[in-house]
């Protein structure tokens, strides 16, 4: 396509679609242009920064005619921060494209007969919906064009989010609309206190500096957990920071810290030390209470997680007589949630710490008809295991983004449940798995669920039933 050249502006492009990665799509004959910052319905000029044989990538630099679905972003960090890529699009159009993406990818990748999708479950809250945010300290702040053009003396220390594609650059976040505003107050106070006391912000290249990460978790019951990650064990400096947080924010019910001397930011192999309060916070769902520790996985949109789990329970069709297997059970939230409608639930996950949390939550809620096992699912779900724990009537599976290993699908075939409820955070890997599942199972219905407004991410819950010929 000679009219589209790298480094030049292509004018008057008609933005017609939204991609699942957050860009918009324009077409010139059969040539595709992915344009950052566009909204379907826009007519815009696009600066091309990458060109391949069949497509080009660029960003909108001038809007000639704005789409009816374009709205003003409410966050000043929009366009610089890697999250909330669809904040400039009406929420109604966001969920339209999420549903369309699920339907398209299931048809294109799955290549099997499918019923019409149930209408996507929208999120009641489109701001302040997350219960967990992780921030990074850095002495290498990402400077936006506006920062550079201001001519002001610029602060190099930052506490915020990674800039997409840059491990060493952090966008200093002034205000974030993802978590309750107390999160903003805590983060800003931590940064101000650190600067006042000359605490060194971490340098990801040289691996020097004192402050590394800040993790803030909250629950719908009003409890807060704050975890500060330091690069070394310096008691005097650490206690200065922790005392500041303790005195400034009595709302914090769990105040903890981690010493991380490694070259990466993962905390799952590190000890978490309690400074004040409890070592966990509690989330409530119906009559269940889930204890969440610093390392625990819990759906990051608490209110929408409840809606998701209700769909799962409904799809499972439980009458109180079913033997249920919950694969990739994590901390057992789904297993515990459906247990009241089942005869027995067996949860399996490959992470031992998660299984320990699952068992603790079940005991805490006095749920006696659940059992949890740690192990690789393809190795655990054997004929011997099934003989010992009983043939499942229903299998619920909620795998990671990569989907299920083919050996796990084959193990499900041997278990031969009447129904499978497949929860996925990646419709593409779910569609791939459907190609294998189609040998013995038919899709009855499915429903997308929007867990993360203003992002391109979407969950999908699917019910499959065993074919008579199996």
What is the strand and helix layout of this fold?
Layout: E1 9-18, E2 24-28, E3 31-36, E4 43-51, E5 55-65, H1 91-110, E6 132-138, H2 145-150, E7 158-162, E8 170-172, H3 181-196, E9 211-218, E10 224-230, H4 235-248, E11 252-259, E12 273-277, E13 281-285, E14 288-292, H5 302-316, E15 323-327, H6 333-339, E16 344-349, H7 352-364, E17 370-374, H8 377-380, H9 383-389, E18 394-397, H10 406-415, E19 419-424, H11 427-437, E20 441-449, E21 459-466
Parallel strand pairs: 3-5, 10-11, 15-16, 15-18, 16-17, 18-19
Antiparallel strand pairs: 1-2, 1-4, 2-3, 4-5, 6-7, 6-9, 7-8, 9-10, 11-12, 13-14, 19-21, 20-21
Structural description of this entry:
- The chain is built from eleven helices and 21 strands.
- With 470 residues, it is α/β, with parallel strands linked by helices.
- The strands form four sheets. It has a seven-stranded mixed beta sheet. A seven-stranded mixed beta sheet has the order 17-16-15-18-19-21-20, sandwiched between helices.
- The relative contact order is 0.10.
- The chain has helices at residues 91-110, 145-150, 181-196, 235-248, 302-316, 333-339, 352-364, 377-380, 383-389, 406-415, 427-437; strands spanning 9-18, 24-28, 31-36, 43-51, 55-65, 132-138, 158-162, 170-172, 211-218, 224-230, 252-259, 273-277, 281-285, 288-292, 323-327, 344-349, 370-374, 394-397, 419-424, 441-449, 459-466.
Q: What structural category arises from helix and sheet content? A: alpha/beta
- Cα radius of gyration in angstroms: 24 Å
Spatial order of strands in the largest sheet: 8-7-6-9-10-11-12
Taking pLDDT < 50 over at least 5 consecutive residues as the criterion, the unreliable ranges are none
Q: Give the overall shape.
A: globular
* Distance N to C terminus: 51 Å
Mean pLDDT over the residues: 94
Largest sheet: 7 strands, mixed
């Amino acid at each position: 396509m000679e009219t589209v050249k790298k480094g030049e502006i292509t004018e008057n492009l008609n933005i017609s679609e939204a991609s699942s990665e957050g860009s918009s799509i324009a077409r010139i004959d059969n040539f595709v242009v992915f344009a950052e910052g566009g909204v379907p319905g826009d007519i815009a000029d696009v600066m091309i920064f990458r060109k391949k044989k069949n497509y080009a990538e660029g960003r909108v630099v001038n809007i000639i005619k704005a789409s009816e679905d374009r709205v003003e972003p409410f966050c000043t960090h929009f366009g610089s921060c890697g999250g909330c890529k669809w904040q400039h699009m009406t929420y109604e159009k966001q969920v339209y494209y999420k549903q369309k993406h699920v339907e398209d990818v299931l048809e294109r990748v799955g290549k099997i007969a499918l019923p019409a999708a149930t209408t996507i479950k929208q999120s009641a809250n489109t701001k302040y919906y997350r219960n967990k945010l992780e921030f990074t300290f850095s002495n290498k702040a990402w400077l936006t064009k506006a920062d550079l053009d201001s001519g002001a003396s610029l602060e190099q220390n930052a506490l915020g989010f990674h800039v997409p594609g840059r491990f060493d650059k952090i966008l200093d976040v002034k205000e974030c609309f993802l978590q309750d505003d107390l999160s903003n107050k805590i983060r800003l106070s931590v940064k101000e206190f650190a600067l006042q006391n000359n605490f060194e912000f971490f340098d990801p290249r040289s691996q020097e500096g004192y402050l590394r990460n800040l993790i803030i978790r909250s629950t719908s019951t009003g409890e807060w957990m704050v975890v500060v990650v330091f690069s070394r064990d310096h008691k005097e400096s650490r206690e200065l920071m922790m005392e500041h947080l303790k005195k400034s924010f009595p709302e914090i019910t769990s105040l903890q810290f981690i010493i991380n001397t490694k070259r990466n930011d993962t905390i799952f192999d590190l000890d978490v030390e309690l400074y004040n309060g409890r070592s966990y916070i509690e989330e409530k769902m119906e009559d269940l209470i889930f204890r969440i520790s610093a390392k625990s996985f819990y759906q990051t949109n608490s209110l929408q997680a409840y809606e998701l789990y209700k769909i799962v329970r409904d799809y499972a069709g439980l009458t109180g007589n079913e033997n249920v297997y919950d694969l990739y059970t994590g901390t057992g939230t789904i297993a515990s949630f459906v247990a009241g409608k089942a005869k027995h639930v067996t949860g399996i996950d490959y992470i031992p710490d998660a299984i320990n949390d699952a068992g603790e939550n079940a005991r805490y809620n006095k749920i006696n008809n659940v059992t949890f096992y740690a192990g690789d699912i393809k190795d655990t779900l054997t004929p011997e295991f099934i003989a010992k724990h009983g043939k499942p009537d229903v299998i619920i599976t909620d795998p990671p983004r990569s989907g299920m290993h083919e050996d796990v699908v084959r193990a499900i075939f041997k278990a031969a449940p009447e129904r499978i409820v497949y929860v996925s955070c990646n419709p593409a890997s779910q569609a791939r798995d459907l190609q294998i599942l189609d040998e013995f199972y038919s899709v009855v219905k499915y429903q997308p669920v929007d867990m993360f407004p203003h992002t391109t991410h979407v969950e999908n819950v699917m019910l499959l039933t065993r074919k008579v010929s199996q």
